[in-house]
């Protein structure tokens, strides 16, 4: 099977490098200058510096050239997914489309697979999610991810096609659980970064991770997810990685909030927009998501960290 990766950001580039170990891979970038630069240097210095391209990786600027049978990995930020699908609808319709983004869309409250289904009903959507930093994948370090597809047969095919020697995919048909695990953990990672940045301690972080996981489960189970999906790679696994590593951009945004430092707003931080989307969705569903609400307060600058801490600690005592 040959693959095209749409989106030459850090993650798309890392996946293209990894998959090129087992066959021809095309990496599409929207900016012609970027395409020419990558073709000349055989690297993506803008988004994933220091990772050389294997020979089997071709950088392209025209999606119309790809074969009809090709599977396409969509590696653009969540809030850009719908307009990307709309912009390339004629090429993407009817294909197997594997979303590689983590988040909930503002406005619709939908995850990536639902956005694909709504925008391009003839496509066969799937989702790749779980704990993995782009740099680790590009370096060939061992990584395990979840491949979610409602259609079990297609899911099994994609699992086989997209696994490599170092990238081990587990499959599930629980799409909603996989979507929410990957999306909601980023919000909790911002909260964890904030407590560490403010010097509130490792115990506070462990409490946030645990109670954050309870929030993740609350929303996911209410929407029909399976509890074991949240306990898997796209849930507990990614929560553990993202809430504890300086390599995570979501965690680093949190650190900057805790330290009252500026943060470069051009960096992709999926948890920021997702917090706003989830707070809105939780209100409609009448779900209690106090940690997410605090992160929303940080993002829209209506809440300070001391206020958030006081708010969380003053909540009525309850059973675990
Ligand atoms: N980085 C990581 O370690 C991981 C990331 N992910 C997920 O992957 C997704 C992408 O993140 P990542 O690659 O890191 O982000 P980056 O910020 O590195 O790159 C985003 C890419 O998306 C492209 N893009 C943005 N908007 C559009 C659009 N409208 N049409 C086409 N292309 C567009 C950008 O193009 P341009 O360069 O021209 O601006 C850029 O190449 C996120 O959902 C993230 O959560 C998942 C696991 C790991
Ligand atoms: O999703 C990721 C790790 O699994 C990447 O995390 P960040 O988007 O926070 O950098």
TrEMBL record:
* This protein's record includes keyword Cytoplasm: yes
Task: Give coiled-coil spans as residue ranges.
Answer: none
- Annotated residues for binding of sn-glycerol 3-phosphate: 102, 130, 132, 185, 238, 248-250
- Where, per UniProt, does this protein localize? Cytoplasm
E.C. designation(s): 1.1.1.94
Say where the protein is mainly found. Answer: cytoplasm
Q: In which pathway does it act?
A: Membrane lipid metabolism; glycerophospholipid metabolism
Glycerol-3-phosphate dehydrogenase NAD-dependent N-terminal domain residues are: 3-153
Which keywords appear in this protein's UniProt record, sorted alphabetically? Cytoplasm, Lipid biosynthesis, Lipid metabolism, NAD, NADP, Nucleotide-binding, Oxidoreductase, Phospholipid biosynthesis, Phospholipid metabolism
Known Pfam families for this protein? Answer: NAD_Gly3P_dh_C, NAD_Gly3P_dh_N
Q: Which residues form the Glycerol-3-phosphate dehydrogenase NAD-dependent C-terminal domain?
A: 174-308
**Could you tell me what reaction this enzyme catalyses?**
sn-glycerol 3-phosphate + NAD(+) = dihydroxyacetone phosphate + NADH + H(+); sn-glycerol 3-phosphate + NADP(+) = dihydroxyacetone phosphate + NADPH + H(+)
- Annotated NADPH binding sites: 11, 30, 102, 134, 249, 270
Which positions are catalytic residues?
A: 185 (proton acceptor)
Q: What class of enzyme is it?
A: oxidoreductase
What is the stated purpose of this protein? Catalyzes the reduction of the glycolytic intermediate dihydroxyacetone phosphate (DHAP) to sn-glycerol 3-phosphate (G3P), the key precursor for phospholipid synthesis.
| Family to which the UniProt record says this protein belongs | Belongs to the NAD-dependent glycerol-3-phosphate dehydrogenase family.
Return the protein name.
Glycerol-3-phosphate dehydrogenase [NAD(P)+]
What is the species listed in this Swiss-Prot or TrEMBL entry?
Ruegeria aquimaris
């Amino acid at each position: 099977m040959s693959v095209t990766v749409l989106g030459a950001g850090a993650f798309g580039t890392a996946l293209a490098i990894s998959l090129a170990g087992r066959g021809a891979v095309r990496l599409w970038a929207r900016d012609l200058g970027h395409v020419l630069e990558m073709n000349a240097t055989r690297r993506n210095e803008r988004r994933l510096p220091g990772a050389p391209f294997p020979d089997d990786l071709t950088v392209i600027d025209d999606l119309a050239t790809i074969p009809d049978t090709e599977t396409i990995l969509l590696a653009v930020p969540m809030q850009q997914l719908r307009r990307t699908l709309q912009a390339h609808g004629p090429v993407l319709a009817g294909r197997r489309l594997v979303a590689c983004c983590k988040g909930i869309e503002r406005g619709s409250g939908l995850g990536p697979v639902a956005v694909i289904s709504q925008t391009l009903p003839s496509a066969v959507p799937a989702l790749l999610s779980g704990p993995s930093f782009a740099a680790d994948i590009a370096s060939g370090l061992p990584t395990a991810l979840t491949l979610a597809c409602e259609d079990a047969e297609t899911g099994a095919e994609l699992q086989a096609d997209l696994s490599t020697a170092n990238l081990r995919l587990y499959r599930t048909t629980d799409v909603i659980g996989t979507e929410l695990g990957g999306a909601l953990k980023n919000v909790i990672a911002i909260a964890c970064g904030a407590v560490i940045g403010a010097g509130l301690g490792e115990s506070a972080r462990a409490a946030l991770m645990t109670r954050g996981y309870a929030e993740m489960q609350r929303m996911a189970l209410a929407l029909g997810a399976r509890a074991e999906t949240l306990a898997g790679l796209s849930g507990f696994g990614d929560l553990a990685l993202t809430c504890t590593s300086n390599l995570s951009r979501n965690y680093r945004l949190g650190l900057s909030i805790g330290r009252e430092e500026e943060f470069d707003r051009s960096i992709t931080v999926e948890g920021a927009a997702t917090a706003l989307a989830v707070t809105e969705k939780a209100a409609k569903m009448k779900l209690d998501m106090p940690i997410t609400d605090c992160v929303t307060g940080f993002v829209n600058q209506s809440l300070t960290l001391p206020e958030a801490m006081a708010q969380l600690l003053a909540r009525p005592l309850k059973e675990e």
